[in-house]
Amino acid sequence: MAVEIGSKVSLISYILLVFFYALGQAANAEKSEQKPSYATGDAIPVSCLNRTVDTGEHITDDQGQLQYIPFFTCNETSRPLELYFGIEKDVNCTIAEVDDPLFHLLEFYIHNDAPLTCRIPTHPINAINPLTPTATTDDFIPLIFALSGALQLSHLHINSALNVLLHTSPELLTQDADILAATAYSSPSLSSLSTRIVIGDPLPLRLSVKWYSTPTLPPSTTGKQGLGGHVHLSTVIYCLLSAGVGVAGSLAYFRGVELPRRIRRYGKDRMGGERGGGYAFPGSAMNGYGSGKRD
Questions:
Q1: Residue 34 — very low, low, confident or very high, per pLDDT cuts 50/70/90?
Q2: Residue 131 reports pLDDT greater than 50
């Protein structure tokens, strides 16, 4: 009897041991599947699609994958362009010299024949899970720089002031991705504020970086509907002035033209009636139309 009880206790202990071991393995597997996260201020490297100078076509590696290379080196840091997680500030990145290949690539970028297609990692790539040490395309999101400017025969005009917008989750942290979306575009797109570039000149890029802790854009800062609001004070004043001018014009026309015309017509009708050329008046011998002549 004691032997039977001891064997049952051993069996239960073994089952519990296997259960807790499996539970621990599952917890470790779940933890290993979670990707590392950015901390505020962490550097985010920017890499761009490598393109040919002649046609602007993308270049692939030996495995047929699109080849990405680091962004241009900035004079200010002596490093390729980097953004900083959750930090809003103006970033200056001056390209020391626009050589001949880069000049032709800029022509493609400005003319939109081949956009400046870049990407940034959604999680820190230097802390990727040891089980999957190589970053995949799922670990990146596109960051396309929409450069605007004008092409000339001997030089370029580039609007080098850019807005960079990045979206994160509301808590700046999700299991799937820390960074949800990103884009960059030239602003303002005015030729008078553009940078004139010839081969050999430096290219100063000025980036205004903004972070949004939501997948969508926040409401307009004007507090109005639409792009900047459709109803402005000037519009209201214009409508009121237009209505006032219309009323004043109507009154002037009525008092200066229509009212005198009606008065003259009324006077003629009265005069014509007294001479017998119209309706008969009470007390007259006529009960209808007539010339006013008695028999």
A1: low
A2: no
3-state secondary structure the chain: CHHHHHHHHHHHHHHHHHHHHHHHHHHHHHHHHCCCCCCCCCEEECEEECECCCCCCECECCCCCECEEECCEECCCCEECEEECCCCCEEEEEECCCCHHHHHHHHHHHHCCCCEEEEEECCCHHHCCCCCCCCCHHHEEEEEEECCEEECCCCEEECCEEEEEEEECCCCCCCCCCEEEEEEEECCCCHHHCEEECCCCCEEEEEEEEEECCCCCCCCCCCCCCCCCCCCHHHHHHHHHHHHHHHHHHHHHHHHHHHHHHHHHHHHHHHHHHCCCCCCCCCCCCCCCCCCCCC
pLDDT of res. 125: 77
**Tens-place pLDDT, residues 47-99:** 999 999 888 888 888 888 889 999 999 999 999 999 999 899 999 999 999 99
In angstroms, rounded to a whole number, what is the distance separating the alpha carbons of residues 186 and 72? 17
